[in-house]
From TrEMBL:
Presence of the UniProt keyword Magnesium in the record: no
Transmembrane segments: 34-55, 61-82, 164-183, 189-207, 219-244
Membrane topology value: Multi-pass membrane protein
Main location group: membrane
Keyword list, A-Z: Membrane, Transmembrane, Transmembrane helix
Subcellular localization(s) per the UniProt record: Endomembrane system
Top-level taxon of origin: Bacteria
Organism: Pseudomonas benzenivorans
Protein name: VIT1/CCC1 transporter family protein
Record-linked Pfam families: VIT1 (PF01988)
Length: 251
């Protein structure tokens, strides 16, 4: 991984650049949703294609099952992501209300919690008391401090609808790619499967490379790692289809 130059580090730590970075919204959440949706979408449809090919089913069956799974699983994954983020936000709000009640009813006890939390970080004496005094004078800061430090609940503005939409869109887009060769008329089934495998491998590798650029990981390793994940899932689907074909004597 290329080392950032000292000049670039100084530029990144200018006050206005820091402020802009800290005020950036849901970029990391969007990237996570997109990567998750794309990988799962491609795995879902190519696993269906592999299983159908291993079982000896015709292209029409692979196409029907592929699109049926693509839409159903894409919708299911988007809804699951929506519900997960919504539940996370609701839990944070519930915990916030509890902390507000505690501050109102037992402020001395809540101040002691702040004191002990920051003592664990190494603060002592007048510095520690100044921190407790500063935090407890600002109710909003006090509540947020307890949410983060006591409960480990980071402040998040992720939108359940946005996350669901990003997940669904990338799931459908990436998942449809391995099905494209099955639209080519007159192409032999082995060629259709081979092209589908090649497209799926390209999608997996591209997702890994994009992930490496965002999270500054080694390009080749990240691409191969994602490719290996998708390839393993497809191999399992193919093997399952082939073994069941043999077990039931499907010609």
């Amino acid at each position: 991984m290329k080392k950032t130059s000292l000049e670039e580090l100084y530029r990144q730590h200018q006050p206005e650049v820091i402020a802009k970075r800290l005020n950036t919204g849901n970029r990391s959440q969007d990237i996570s949703d997109a990567v998750l949706g794309a990988i799962d979408g491609c795995i879902t449809t190519f696993a269906v294609v592999s299983g159908a090919f291993g079982a000896g089913f015709p292209a029409s069956v692979a196409l029907i099952l592929g699109f049926a799974n693509l839409l159903a699983d894409g919708f299911s994954m988007a809804v699951s992501n929506y519900e997960a983020i919504k539940a996370q936000r609701e839990f944070r709000e519930q915990t916030r209300r509890m902390e507000e009640e505690h501050i109102d009813r037992v402020p001395d006890g809540e101040q002691e919690e702040v004191r002990q939390l920051f003592r664990q970080k190494g603060f002592e004496g007048e510095t520690l008391e100044a921190i407790v005094e500063t935090i407890s004078q600002d109710r909003e800061l006090w509540v947020e401090t307890m949410l983060v430090e006591e409960h480990g609940l980071q402040k998040t503005e992720a939108s359940p609808w946005r996350s669901a939409a990003v997940t669904f869109a990338t799931f459908i887009f990436a998942g449809a790619i391995p099905l494209l060769p099955y639209f080519v008329p007159g192409l032999p089934l082995p060629w259709q499967f081979g092209l589908s495998a090649g497209l799926a491998a390209a999608v997996f590798f591209a997702i890994g490379m994009l992930k490496s650029l965002v999270f500054t990981k080694p390009l080749l390793i990240s691409g191969l790692s994602t490719l290996l994940t998708g390839g393993t899932a497809a191999a399992l689907a193919y093997l399952t289809g082939y073994l069941l074909r043999q077990a039931f004597g499907i010609l």
